[in-house]
UniProtKB/TrEMBL annotation:
PROSITE patterns: FAD_FR. Residues 1-198 form the FAD-binding FR-type domain. One of its GO terms (cellular component) is cytosol. Its cofactor is FAD. This is FAD-binding FR-type domain-containing protein. InterPro entries: CysJ-like_FAD-binding, FAD-bd_FR_type, Flavoprot_Pyr_Nucl_cyt_Rdtase, FNR_nucleotide-bd, NADPH_Cyt_P450_Rdtase_alpha, OxRdtase_FAD/NAD-bd, Riboflavin_synthase-like_b-brl. It comes from Haptolina ericina.
Length: 355
């Protein structure tokens, strides 16, 4: 990703750095970690390589204190950099998600030499997204499903996700627009994901997608759309549980699911809109009323269960529902229900991808 250019230029002005100046980057010692480039402009360094809008940790304050010339600012930075000031650091920085850029702006007397910023501010990290399209249906494209991260804390400026904002701010269809003033390039790569779809088109699939966690299941259903079962056999029963907050705002790929249901690529769709009514409803609540069907999936030898979404309480709650189903519908003891789920995991028939 890249940091927002206008915000970055504002920070460089505050730091008294010349954006167009070229710099060479060399390791100070032989075992120093490598840097992505050997030379770049200061603007490129802070826009493309340093996590300027990330949230600092204690070591940043401890190091920055050495460069503060005002005693009051130096003392405050030292307090944040000391383990005894952990609670103050939580209130000042961690909870409100205060950024490196904002801390540097506030402690205006702390201005390290340019080379120290590479030690003070970590490198921008790669971001990983599940592929939301099937190569069988879209052989020349890769689709991703990205939630644009923007939220408010008690700080005046809204918080934002660097990568999702970068992607959202790209001009639409720029890659296909011959009249575009400049070419848009986004570095991407492909790596093996956590979820593996069964190659057997007759396998039964139960998928639970939470928010943008539904992305890999769009790929799965598209793949199933292109797969043909053996002669005389029917395609495996495919069920999707999807959870989001609001139907009007968050029901991702709603029109596509309707088409897949009509075409029998998807046999069942259960959707929980947690904020559209007074009582919050989550996917685990919908699953609880489908106990007999869930046990049918759990007990069949050619069935697969997938969960994808944020690593909050929902995946744990879904696992609890599956365990309770094994106990109530399968007449298993709690111990044997746990053994069943662990066996399914070992056989890669119960897979989770959370973040």
């Amino acid at each position: 990703p890249r940091n927002p250019q206008q915000r970055t230029m504002s920070v460089l002005a505050q730091l008294g750095l010349r954006p167009a100046a070229w710099i060479l980057i060399k390791p100070a010692v032989a075992h120093a970690p490598s840097f992505p480039v050997a030379s770049c402009t200061i603007q490129e360094l802070f826009t493309q390589h340093l996590d300027l809008f990330g949230v600092p940790r204690r070591s940043f304050f401890r190091m920055l204190a050495h460069f503060a010339t005002l005693p009051a600012q130096r003392e405050r930075l030292q307090e944040f950099g000391d383990v005894k000031g952990a609670e103050d650091l939580l209130d000042y920085c961690t909870r409100p998600r205060r950024t490196f850029a904002e801390v540097l702006a506030e402690f205006s007397s702390a201005r390290p030499p340019l080379e120290y910023y590479l030690d003070l501010i970590p490198k921008l990290r790669q971001r990983y997204f599940s592929i939301a399209s099937s190569p069988l249906l879209h052989p020349d494209q890769i689709h991703v499903c990205v939630a644009v991260v923007r939220y408010q804390t008690h700080l005046k400026e809204p918080r934002f996700g660097v990568c999702s904002t970068f992607l959202a701010d790209l001009p639409a269809n720029a890659a296909h627009d011959a009249s575009a003033s400049s070419e848009v390039r986004v570095p991407v790569w492909i790596r093996r994901g956590c979820l593996t779809m069964p190659s057997d088109p007759e396998a039964q699939m139960l998928m639970v997608g939470l928010g943008t966690g539904v992305a890999p299941f769009r790929s799965f259903v598209q793949t199933r759309q292109c797969m043909q079962p053996s002669a005389g056999c029917s395609p495996g029963h495919t069920v999707l549980y999807f959870g989001c907050r609001h139907k009007q705002e968050d029901f991702l790929y709603s029109n596509e699911w309707e088409v897949h249901l009509h075409d029998k690529d998807l046999q069942e769709l259960h959707v929980a809109f947690s904020r559209d009514q007074e009582r919050k409803v989550y996917v685990q609540h919908l699953m609880e009323v489908q106990r007999a069907k869930l046990w049918d999936t759990l007990s069949k030898p050619n069935s697969y269960i997938f969960i994808a979404g944020p690593s909050n309480q929902a995946p744990k709650a879904i696992r609890r529902v599956l365990k309770e189903v094994a106990i109530t519908e399968g007449q298993l003891t709690a111990e044997h229900a746990d053994i069943l789920l662990k066996r399914l995991e070992a056989e890669h028939r119960f897979q989770c991808e959370t973040w």
